[in-house]
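User: Can you recover a sequence for this backbone? Please restate the input before giving your answer.

Assistant: Of course. Working from this structure:
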């Protein structure tokens, strides 16, 4: 990594931190993480703010690249969202070589399926790299041989305990995209249409409009339009209404670095079914003891038959529902807050200041 410039630390909060990200303000996991991190830093007395850079990231034009370089040049310390950094290796190298500190915060590697030379160059040009899960750090180590990325796990905020619904309500909060695999969810629900349930798919339908239409078409073709609602992205009271009505959360993404929505589910005392081998499995297990009951289940991704079987068992076995729910409530009481996330970031910056190797 490039030598770091002067940085703030948990002991010296005299310098402001810019969290530089894209101009998209939809409630994605990455955007929520960025906002909560900045708020936690401010609570710790560390001046910090979000700086949004316009452009079609991660595929910017020259104007967007110039805007990023200009933004980074204004700050001694910048945390740069990976969705921007992955396409800005030149700007990052120029700014760090000028003595600024640039730390890349990776939510989802662009090169998760195959290496990205631009992303690798950006990661190596940065002062340090922070990953939002251990799973993400492991991916970067395998993909690029990146040594010891810092892990700053998402925190959780105290939330009301979900009340649930009758019949049971299934909740999935994710943009409608092939990776999130709502089609597999709809297929699975079609296999258990003989049972009583309702479902809500909450998330943007604009990221991949063709895929979103496929999801709608499958719902209609399966005769489930009166049981599965697509709400679009929700925030605030409207989103809290969905949490309150839910009984089980689904996050069966084919690729997931962490799955902040799983932590949010646990904050409401809700169990979840997640994709095995993804970062969502890390979020579901959390820091609970190894012998603690899991508040849900991890299933093979892209396997609607397995998902349908798991949902059928959950819907027809009151003891299983009670076990998962109890485990979710137990985890709710022990979830770390966003102050832990801020501490990990400030410790990373303090290490750079002291000259610790990255």
């Amino acid at each position: 990594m490039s030598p770091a410039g002067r940085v703030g630390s948990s002991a010296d909060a005299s310098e402001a931190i810019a969290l530089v990200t894209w101009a998209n303000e939809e409630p994605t996991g990455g955007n929520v993480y960025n906002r909560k991190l900045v708020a936690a830093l401010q609570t710790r007395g560390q001046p910090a703010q979000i700086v949004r850079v316009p452009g079609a990231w991660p595929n910017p034009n020259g104007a967007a690249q110039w805007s990023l370089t200009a933004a980074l040049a204004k700050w001694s310390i910048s945390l740069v969202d990976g969705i921007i950094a992955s396409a800005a290796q030149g700007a990052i190298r120029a700014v760090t070589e000028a003595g600024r500190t640039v730390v890349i915060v990776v939510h989802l590697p662009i090169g998760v399926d195959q290496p990205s030379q631009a992303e690798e160059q950006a990661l190596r040009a940065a002062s340090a790299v922070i990953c939002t899960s251990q799973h993400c750090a492991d991916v970067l180590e395998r993909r690029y041989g990146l040594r010891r990325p810092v892990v700053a796990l998402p925190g959780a905020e105290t939330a009301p305990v979900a009340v649930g619904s009758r019949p049971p309500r299934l909740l999935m909060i994710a943009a409608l995209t092939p990776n999130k695999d709502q089609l597999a969810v709809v297929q699975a629900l079609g296999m258990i249409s003989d049972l009583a349930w309702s479902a809500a798919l909450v998330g943007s339908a604009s990221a991949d409009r063709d895929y979103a239409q496929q999801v709608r078409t499958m719902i209609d073709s399966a005769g489930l339009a009166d049981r599965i609602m697509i709400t679009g992205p929700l925030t605030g009271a409207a989103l809290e209404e969905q949490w309150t009505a839910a009984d089980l959360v689904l996050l069966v993404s084919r690729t997931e670095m962490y799955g902040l929505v799983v932590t949010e589910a646990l904050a409401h005392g809700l169990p979840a079914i997640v994709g095995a081998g993804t970062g969502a499995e890390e979020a579901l297990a959390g820091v609970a003891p190894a012998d603690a009951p899991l508040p849900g289940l991890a299933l093979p991704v892209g396997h609607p038959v397995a998902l349908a079987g798991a949902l059928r068992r959950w819907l027809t076995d009151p003891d299983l529902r009670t076990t998962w729910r109890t485990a979710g409530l137990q985890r709710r009481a022990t979830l770390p807050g966003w102050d832990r996330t801020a501490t990990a970031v400030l410790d990373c910056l303090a290490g750079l200041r002291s000259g610790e190797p990255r």
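That completes the design. The longest strand covers residues 17-22.
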